[in-house]
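Chain A, query sequence.
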Amino acid sequence: MRIAAVVALLVASISLAASFAADPEKPKASVVMQKKLEYSQSLLSALMSEDFKEADRNVKLLKTYTRLEEMLRSKKPGYREELDNFGDALDALATAVDAEDHDRASKAYLDMLASCILCHRVMRSE
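Chain A, predicted structure.
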């Protein structure tokens, strides 16, 4: 499991570096957020079709990109609390997906979405 997390972080870092090479003017955080949006949408699609293997893959990718984002934004006031809320929602989602519990996974996805909205509100206000 630890090796998979390291590999996922490495892949995410390479992907991020490739994004900078393609568009060096684009802010780092927006690249990370774009990937998180992409994986959130793929996660929703996987949940809608009850494809728990794909849902698990997207949860892991979201966790990886969240770690990258944390490195970029960790000093912003109010951000830590929202990041913790997002992490808690992702953990609940991972547990529900592992159990193939569609009802709990759906609720956890909504909690994750709510934390995204609140975090973006905090980030815009600062």
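Residues 2-125 form a domain with the Four Helix Bundle (Hemerythrin (Met), subunit A) fold (CATH 1.20.120.290). Confidence is low (pLDDT under 50) at residues 4-14.
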